Amino acid sequence: KGPDIAAFSYDEVHIVSIGTTSTSFEYGYRLTGTTSWVKESVARPVGSIAFKYPAITVDHRGHVHIAFTAIFKSAPWPTTINATTSHYWNVWYMHRPQPTIAVPGTWIESHNTLSLSPNWQDHSMLGLPPQDVAGDWIDIQADPSGSIYISWHGTIYSHWAGKDDAFITRRTFANDGSAFMWEEPQALHLASESPNNLGYSWSPSICADKDNVVFPVYFYKALGLGDILDINGNIILDGYENYADMDSAYRVMHNSVFID
């Protein structure tokens, strides 16, 4: 994923992008009545070892919201289901009021959106065997009411990085500012419901219309095509990497309920 962009008005634009360092990414904005850009470095969360793919949205007040993958633990790649080490990647969220020329402001929220979701916790910290718990390829969208939606793909069903399902969560505007009021994540498309259990989904993104209806879209494996073998029965392409049956789909959501 490359840079992401959001606008509050015709001439107020906000951008996030990875930079040249692994310790921070770049946030920039241009305000109404100005011709120059203001650029800031945003440090990765304390305790994390890396980050990935920041995304950005601006709400109806002009407040800025970003989300990204915060990596706290990584394991050798590719992982296996019986690995002795595991990935632990959070879906991290940050929020700041609308910057102005006089008061640029600062980030007033910075937290893991999944901190109260039991399935998304680090298994090793719970005394459980290592299993990948990773949220990745994150997108974020504000609807006109000010509710914030975040989508990502992650591993809580497979516990195997690279074999993901797409998810979405919401925080309503009534709960603005609360780190603990994100709704329980919902899967957009379950791999476990697909042929051969090989129908994983990934790379979701979101938009919202004027009526606060939200549309997440994502890739998925439509047929569950399995391994490709050579004449001797050796695997030359793992089923999870066989994209011959790749397709895309979207859902329709209103008030956190799927209506299509």
Strand content: over 45%
Share of helix, binned: under 10%
**Inertia-based shape:** globular
Rounded mean pLDDT score? 89
Note the total helix count: 0
Give an overview of the whole structure.
By secondary structure, this protein is mainly beta. Helices cover 0% and strands 45% of the residues. Strand 2 and strand 3 (24-30) form a beta hairpin. The two termini are 27 Å apart. The mean pLDDT is 89.
Quick rundown:
By secondary structure, the chain is an all-beta fold.
Give descriptors for this structure.
mainly beta, single chain, globular, eight-stranded mixed beta sheet, five-stranded antiparallel beta sheet, 0% helix, 45% strand, 260 residues
Set out the fold topology.
Layout: E1 4-9, E2 12-18, E3 24-30, E4 38-43, E5 50-58, E6 64-73, E7 88-96, E8 109-112, E9 133-142, E10 148-154, E11 165-171, E12 186-189, E13 201-208, E14 213-221, E15 228-229, E16 235-237, E17 246-250, E18 253-254, E19 257-258
Parallel strand pairs: 7-9
Antiparallel strand pairs: 1-2, 2-3, 3-4, 5-6, 6-7, 7-8, 9-10, 10-11, 11-12, 13-14, 14-17, 14-18, 15-16, 18-19
